[in-house]
Design a protein that fits this description.
With about 600 residues, the chain is an alpha/beta fold. Helix content is about 65%, strand content about 10%. The chain has a six-stranded mixed sheet, with helices on both faces. Strands 2-1-4-5 form a four-stranded antiparallel sheet. The chain has a two-stranded antiparallel sheet with strand order 7-8. Bound molecules: adenosine-5'-triphosphate. Adenosine-5'-triphosphate binds near residues 111, 375, 378, 381 and 383. Keywords: ATP-binding, Cell membrane, Membrane, Nucleotide-binding, Transmembrane, Transmembrane helix, Transport.
Length: about 600
């Protein structure tokens, strides 16, 4: 099992750190040095029974024993740091590999994961494996090496008696194997319950504002309690179910001791055994049993680690978005949808009731022009924009940027061509400067400030306690929605990509912030191919082209004036929005 775990660990990190192997060799030496004083004890006992013990001998044995202890400490002193540095380097590498792999997975995969479960795999599972490598493996190896050396030594002294010492081991191992078997189901249950509880807690914390505002504390609390109770029960089961078999393992191991006493007395009586040898066996058998018991108990931990490793490895086995063998460079920045068909994958593959999000959609988005996408909620506007950035791959048809299928451009090159500004602005914990710099990591401070100016963000940034060096909380919770938007526009300005995808996000901000955001967007749009999802039709009156979607289909297309004259869905939406505005004015 250890070998298998090591192989999977090496596979996970893609690294075979020699320090870890050297550290484990020192752990074996530590086990040998823990067993060595027993050899001295044997010689000492020989001397006692032969009556040849002199003070000089006693001093020599004493010194040699002290040396064994010191050398053992030295072995630990050298081996442990090697194991730690090897294990942490490998797990660091494993984390990087996983993070890199996640970057290449299709977005649909993330949608199918429960955030708590994915979180558990990336935190507690990885920590468990890391703990296994850094703290457990060395102790396990030296803990196993010590009884192995002792038994070899006992076999050398008197093989008959040594075999008697080991008499209980076959049955004991059977009991241990059975305890593992019995623990298999509860440990799966425990890991599932643990990630469910983690998900529930996460959801609870993230939704605390909604929970409070809707006064549904009781209901959510009940769900949380149920999940935590299940976790508690699962934890208990994992301890209780294998407990009798582990106890049997310890008991069966020690039956050898009983046999040892009986066989020892027998062979002592017939003169084939010396009292010193029997005494030595009686003294040394106990640490052998104790150590084997400890090692047996810790195999349960190995089982957890193996399960955790498997769960993590599943992430690495997930299929990534296919990348072109020879990426092609787009010739221009117009975007063409050619009979695009796309449906979100659902967990239940048999579920045919979900209509496609986009259905046989064809259109052309000209370069360096502003194209607005409008339509009722759920029409497929965000989907259309996300597909341009290849967050998902189309099921049928193709999307071409500059004449090249987005699947042939290569993700990295495509993302260099495209900047996105969406309603949910993700800000990372770090300074304002760093957050804007995400758009262009090598940008100078002056470039960042220039982008912030153009994004109408400079004034509010300057008003922050440390200006551009203010450290934002995770998610930028201390900023308003409009401020977060303008930071995101500054990022996009800094990135200076020729294609700009944006989700008009002015629905929830006050008129002055809306005007600022609109100005920032106008600045951003200049000279670029812009696709904007518009919720306020008044903001897209001057768009070069407006695409009207409904239920995943492109039903109208044209300019504002042209679409009004068609008297279709766009005209109705326009009239409704105008009426709503007048109603607001009258009410005011
Ligand atoms: N990640 C997803 N997984 C599954 N279905 C999704 C996902 N995202 C959107 N959908 C579904 O696809 C359809 C189109 O959604 P989309 O978000 O593109 O519409 P939209 O026009 O942008 O809506 P809104 O204006 O409300 O944001 C909807 O039926 C929606 O429920």
């Amino acid at each position: 099992m250890i070998r298998e775990l090591m192989q999977s660990g090496f596979r996970l990190s893609g690294l075979r750190d020699a320090r870890l192997l050297r550290g484990l060799t020192w752990a074996v030496a530590e086990g040998l040095l823990a067993a060595a004083p027993c050899l001295l004890l044997y010689l000492l006992l020989q001397g006692v029974f032969a009556g040849s013990l002199t003070p000089a001998y006693i001093w020599t044995y004493g010194l040699l024993m002290a040396m064994c202890v010191m050398l053992r400490m030295l072995a630990a002193r050298i081996g442990m740091p090697l194991i730690f540095s090897g294990a942490y380097a490998m797990m660091g590498q494993a984390r990087l590999r996983i993070a890199d792999h996640l970057r290449t997975l299709p977005m649909g995969w993330f949608g199918r994961q429960r955030s708590g479960d994915l979180g558990a795999r990336l935190t507690s599972d990885l920590e468990l494996v890391e703990h296994l490598w850094s703290h457990f493996l060395g102790v396990f190896v030296s803990g196993l090496a010590m009884p192995v050396f002792l038994v070899l030594f006992l076999l050398w002294i008197d093989w008959r008696l040594a075999l008697v010492v080991l008499a209980g081991i076959p049955l004991a191992l059977l009991a241990l194997a059975w305890s593992q078997r019995v623990a298999a189901r509860p440990s799966t249950r425990m890991m599932t319950a643990s990630s469910t509880a983690q998900s529930a807690l996460l959801e609870y914390v993230q939704g605390i504002a909604v929970i409070r505002s809707f006064g549904r504390f009781g209901m959510v609390w009940q769900h949380l309690q149920t999940d935590l109770h299940e976790h508690h029960q699962a934890l208990l089961a994992v301890e209780i179910k294998p407990a009798p078999w582990l106890a049997a393992y310890g008991f069966l191991l020690e039956t050898g001791y009983l046999c040892l006493v009986l066989a020892g007395a027998w062979w002592l009586a017939d003169g084939t055994l010396t009292p010193s040898t029997l005494l030595l066996f009686l003294v040394l058998a106990l640490p052998v049993y104790r150590q084997l018991f400890e090692v047996g108990l810790s195999t349960l931990m190995l089982r957890f680690a193996r399960r955790a490793l498997t769960r993590i490895e599943h992430i690495l086995h997930e299929e990534t978005m296919p990348e072109p063998a020879t990426p092609k460079a787009p010739q221009g920045h117009d975007i063409v949808f050619d009979h695009v068909h796309f449906a979100y994958a659902h967990d239940d593959e048999q579920d045919q009731t979900h209509p496609p999000a986009l259905f046989d959609l064809s259109c052309r988005i000209p370069a360096r022009q502003l194209t607005a996408v409008v339509g009722p909620s759920g029409a497929g506007k965000s989907t259309l924009v996300h597909l341009i950035a290849r967050l998902w791959d189309v099921d049928d048809g193709a999307i071409r940027v500059g004449g090249v299928d987005v699947r042939d451009i290569g993700t990295h090159a495509l993302h260099q061509q495209v900047a996105m500004v969406f309603q949910d602005v993700l800000l990372f914990s770090g300074t304002v400067l760093d957050n804007i710099r995400i758009g262009k990591p090598d940008a100078s401070r002056e470039d960042v400030i220039e982008a912030a100016w153009r994004a109408q963000a400079h004034d509010f940034i300057e008003a922050l306690p440390q200006g551009y060096d203010t450290v934002l909380d995770e998610g930028g919770a201390t900023l308003s929605g409009g401020e977060r938007q303008r930071l995101s526009i500054a990022r996009a300005l800094l990135k200076d990509a020729p294609v700009l995808l944006l989700d008009e996000a002015t629905a929830s901000v006050d008129p002055s912030a809306e005007a600022q955001i609109q100005r920032a967007i106008a600045e951003l749009a200049r000279g670029r191919t812009v696709v904007v999802i518009a919720h306020h039709l008044k903001n897209v009156r001057y768009a070069d082209q407006i695409l009207v979607l409904n239920k995943g289909r492109l039903i109208e297309q044209g300019t504002h004036a042209g679409l009004l004259s068609q008297n279709g869905l766009y005209a109705r939406m326009w009239t409704r929005q105008q009426q709503a505005q007048q109603w607001r004015l009258r009410a005011a």
